[in-house]
Specification:
This protein is of the alpha/beta class. The chain is 56% helix and 6% strand. It has a 5-stranded parallel β-sheet with strand order 2-3-4-1-5, with helices on both faces. Strand 3, helix 15 and strand 4 form a beta-alpha-beta unit.
């Protein structure tokens, strides 16, 4: 292990077709000035809004405004605001979709829709915004009906109905397209999105809080390196798990994609073994447990600060329950999250390395502000796999957050990753980390003992 280098593999020269493709893709930056032009238009609407507002105030103060005028003036202000909102969606959503990613992950004001924006979502939102603006214009015409010709009213209504029909058709077409895109995404990422098989913290039939650790994926060979070196076996298992084991009680994504909220879509994409909430955690079970630290972590400030979290303790104390609970809350707050066991992460990274795309895989994971690595330490890794984990931790160092659960403290990680990679990995992982120790007996064993006694 001492002679093992931690340097990334040398880059492979790109063929001319790839270079040409990158050059064409770089032309997207030609659109950037267009969005800055829309920013200037936003400023024009701000000026128009306050000009109209000042005129309304003056006429009200001088007694020159009747009820109809006030209503029309207010509708005009609403119209200006709605058009400004439309501009914001085009500027932010369009730039994010067609030019470059905007790094707002973890920002407290990040719009919920921005976390899953794409061309279909953007088109539907624009269509509905246009319908709203058309509704305001039509309402203005009906409020001022005595000064509006029947011809204008008729065509205003016809145009408004055309906008509604167009938006409905666009929304209907977006559903199947979004479902198809999500299905393709699941197929393309099945090696890394398999559900974790770690700690299943269900208390059973009569309990709402979960703390047991279900190691149902079992007792496996002592060194995972023999599996990851032959990447055709474990990655295939990882892929099968992604397809065969959706979250309990879930409905196939293609059947519900157009109806799920953004939070539900993110929770499903995270591939949690089951849905656990922080509120359901039985804080009375562990003998030693920092409740204030958990409350602090529940605010998710560690995600915005790109810090790590570690839950350390013996089996059955609730480590995975807490990790999943934080992950679910992060999804609800608009963050992309990905969950897998340490064995599954090893398979995913080994598969990427075998395909010569490890660097691309690590870069693609940057889209997830939070990764969860469950069950570190239940079996040791060989030198090559330890190197892969080091690259994952080093790549995300001060860039994005990790939640790690382990039955061994960091001081004993040389038993898992060997003496070569462990010190450097621990140094980066623990530098900006909140480490919570859970001490106590296994919740499952306590239930089993109780049932046997009865």
């Amino acid at each position: 292990m001492s002679g093992h280098t931690l340097a990334p593999p040398p880059p492979v020269a790109s063929p001319p077709t790839t270079t040409l493709g990158y050059a064409l893709f770089a032309t997207r930056w030609l659109q950037a000035p267009l969005y800055f032009g829309l920013v200037a238009a936003q400023g024009v609407y701000v000026y128009k809004f306050f000009n109209e507002l000042w005129t309304l105030i003056l006429r009200c103060v001088t007694g020159q405004a009747n009820e109809t005028y006030v209503m029309l003036a207010v509708l005009k202000l609403v119209d200006v605001v709605m058009i400004a909102n439309l501009l914001i969606m085009v500027i932010v959503g369009g730039y994010e979709t067609f030019v470059s990613r905007i790094g707002l992950q973890g920002h407290r004001d990040q719009p919920e829709w921005l976390s899953h924006v794409n061309s279909n979502v953007l088109k539907v939102k624009l269509a509905t915004a246009i319908v709203g603006i058309s509704s305001v214009h039509l309402l203005q015409m009906f409020v001022d009906v005595h000064h509006t010709s029947h011809h204008s009213l008729m065509w205003g209504t016809v145009i408004h109905m055309a906008f509604i029909a167009s938006a409905a058709i666009l929304a209907y077409m977006s559903g199947p397209m979004a479902a198809h895109a999500e299905g393709s995404s699941h197929k393309g990422h099945c090696h890394g999105h398999g559900p974790g098989q770690g700690e299943d913290h269900g208390h059973g039939e009569n309990h709402g809080h979960g703390h047991g650790e279900n190691h149902g994926h079992g007792h496996v060979p002592e060194m995972v390196g023999r599996e990851t070196s032959a990447s055709s076996s474990v990655p295939a298992e990882f892929s099968a798990l992604a397809v065969a084991r959706p979250a309990p009680g879930s409905i196939p994504a293609q059947a519900t994609a157009s109806y799920e909220t953004g939070a539900e879509t993110r929770i499903r994409a995270a591939r949690f073994p089951s849905r656990k909430l922080l509120e359901d955690f039985d804080e009375e079970h562990p003998r030693a447990f920092d409740r204030e630290a958990l409350a602090r972590l529940g605010k998710l400030d560690f995600v915005a600060a790109r810090r790590n979290v570690m839950f350390v303790g013996p089996p059955g104390t609730g480590k995975t329950h807490l990790a999943v609970g934080l992950g679910v809350r992060a999804c609800q707050a608009g963050h992309q999250v990905l969950f897998a066991t340490a064995t599954e992460w090893a398979a995913r990274l080994a598969d990427a390395r075998a395909g010569g795309r490890l660097g691309e895989e690590l870069a693609a994971l940057d889209a997830h502000p939070l990764l969860i690595v469950d069950e570190v330490g239940y079996r040791p890794f060989d030198a090559d796999t330890a190197h892969l984990f080091f690259q994952l931790v080093a790549h995300r160092y001060e860039r994005a957050s990790l939640i790690v659960t382990s039955d061994r403290p960091l001081g004993r990680w040389d038993e898992i990753f060997g003496g070569g990679a462990a010190p450097a990995m621990v140094d980066r992982l623990a530098h900006h980390a909140e480490i919570l120790r859970l001490d106590g007996d296994s919740y499952r064993m306590r239930r089993a003992t109780s049932a046997w006694a009865e």
